[in-house]
Specification:
This protein has 143 residues and is an all-beta fold. The protein folds into two domains: 41 residues, no CATH class; 96 residues, Immunoglobulin-like, CATH 2.60.40.1930. It contains no helices and ten strands. The strands form three sheets. Strands 7-6-9-10 form a four-stranded antiparallel beta sheet, with no helix packed on it. A three-stranded antiparallel beta sheet has the order 2-1-3, with no helix packed on it. A hairpin with a 5-residue loop joins strand 9 and strand 10.
Length: 143
């Protein structure tokens, strides 16, 4: 079975986290009614996601995280991002998760770090939801 699209798109298989290329056909193979399929279509290929803090993160400080989605040969449109933070203990800081929109591929998100934030190495992952292209930013919070 094959899905035929109206024109060529850059196609992303969301559940498989794969870029399928620029195409007007999506081969499905054997269809299993119990296995969902979800595809994202964009007029350009997402090349990268980059993220950087405007200042060094510190206890008790609000720091802006600047994020950029780069596209091949085009200005990116509006992208939904998923920001996930993991603390030095390896646990998700789910209360600090964000899902901002990056208009024209860019956004700035304020992160507020608590006065009693645990010191150590943190890992922030910024993921473009459609393409699943992501970057990791590692940083330290000191005593």
């Amino acid at each position: 079975m094959t899905i035929t699209l109206d024109k060529k798109w850059h196609v992303y298989d969301w559940f498989q986290k794969k870029y399928l290329g620029e195409t007007d056909r999506i081969p499905l193979g054997a269809v299993d009614k119990d296995v969902p399929r979800l595809f994202g279509l964009l007029p350009y290929k997402v090349e990268s996601v980059t993220a950087a803090f405007a200042e060094n993160p510190m206890k008790g400080k609000v720091v802006n995280l600047d994020i950029k989605v780069a596209a091949a040969g085009a200005t990116p449109g509006k992208h939904l991002l998923w920001l996930r933070l993991v603390g030095p203990d390896g646990a998700d800081r789910y209360w600090m998760e964000e899902r901002p929109f990056a208009e024209n591929g860019t956004c700035s998100v304020p992160f507020a770090f608590a006065l009693n934030e645990k010191p150590g190495r943190y890992v922030l992952t910024a993921t473009d939801v459609i393409s699943q292209v992501a970057c990791k930013l590692e940083f330290d919070i000191h005593e």
